Amino acid sequence: MTGCSLKNSDNSSLSSQNGEYIFQSASLENTIKQRDMKFKKYKEIMKSNKSLDSLSYQNERIDLDLDLFDFYSEWEGVEYKLGGDSKSGIDCSGFIQKAFKEKFNLSMPRTALLQSQVGKEIDKSQLLSGDLVFFKTGDDINHVGIYLEDGLFVHASTKIGVTISELSNSYFSKSYWKAQRIID
Question: Which three-class secondary structure string do you get for 74-138?
Answer without folding.
Answer: HHCCCCECCCCEECCEECHHHHHHHHHHHHHCCCCCCCHHHHCCCCEEECHHHCCCCCEEEEECC
